[in-house]
Amino acid sequence: MIGEVGELPKAVDALRQANRIVVIGCSGGGKTTLSLRIAGALQLPFISMDREFFWLPGWQNRTKPDERARIAVAAAGDRWVMDGTGSSSFDLRLPRAQFVLWVRMPRHLCLWGVVKRWLRWRGRSRPHMADDCPERLDPEFLRYIWTFERKVSPAIATALARYGADVPVYEVKSRAEMRALLDLVDVSA
């Protein structure tokens, strides 16, 4: 893949120098946890795409023009960690990004992650979701996770090549890799 950073120490060096970081991947893989820790360690503002762009109270979608306008304003900022895949806005975010973390956990871990999240937050909105959007778990969402790598990841790779060919990309493929990355970022921040 274009821009791929293979070695963890090299990725951490590039990550520490970045002021605009996009964190993408399948739901339940740990994107938000990773994004929050990176934002805290590097003292960068955290932006939740779910909360700020995608959802209105009561699980209502924003209109696409409103969503894109909000994303464009946020992406124009000088410093941020933006948590969310949102492939329809890669053209706005990737040209501005200085680093991409692609969380590519196995689907069984992503499924387990969303089940744990649902158990923790069911009946309530989690902190980085729009108000009045209680955590939910439905067959369509589970199917999305199950087929993410096959259906969504190829489009992500294409978008990275098209809109972010010069942006370093580091793929996190296990919980151990995520912990190692966070340990190095925390120590070196």
Automatic annotation (TrEMBL):
Gene3D superfamilies linked: P-loop containing nucleotide triphosphate hydrolases
Family matches, as PANTHER family: DNA TOPOLOGY MODULATION PROTEIN FLAR-RELATED PROTEIN, YALI0E33011P
Protein name per its UniProtKB record: AAA family ATPase
Organism ancestry: Bacteria, Pseudomonadati, Pseudomonadota, Alphaproteobacteria, Hyphomicrobiales
